[in-house]
Design brief:
28% of the residues lie in helices and 28% in strands. The chain is α+β, with helices and mostly antiparallel strands.
């Protein structure tokens, strides 16, 4: 899948709220994770989580500096499905052209067009 659109950083308040949200895996797991790095074992990760939890027994786990997020306002989604003999399926959903201009906020328009693309 390929997504295209405008990307903006989330606010510090939004990052704090997401980092602390237990429904989103909890701050102790986020702080213990070396995201996208090789993980030697599940047990090693569980130990790291336990160390973070022990360090922050009282109070909230603070959001580390530099930990944040990004918001994308998509204008295109492309789905690609591999098929034999190069007969791949490519389907793209495009937002109205008005949304792509600076005049209209993407959240205000909900019209999408479906287009089949050559592989």
């Amino acid at each position: 899948m390929r997504i295209r659109g405008n990307v903006t950083p989330v606010t510090a308040a939004e990052a704090d709220a997401y980092f602390a949200d237990p429904a989103e895996a909890g701050a102790d797991r986020r702080l213990a994770s070396k995201q996208s790095q090789p993980l030697e074992s599940r047990f090693a990760f569980e130990q790291a989580i336990a160390l973070v939890a022990a360090k922050h027994v009282i109070g909230e786990v603070p959001r580390p500096p530099g930990w944040g997020g990004w918001r994308i306002a998509p204008v295109r989604f492309e789905f690609w499905h591999d098929r034999p003999f190069r007969l791949h399926d490519r389907i793209e959903f495009r937002r109205d052209a008005a949304v792509q201009s600076s005049q209209v906020q993407p959240s205000q328009v909900h019209s999408w067009t479906k287009v089949r693309l050559y592989p």
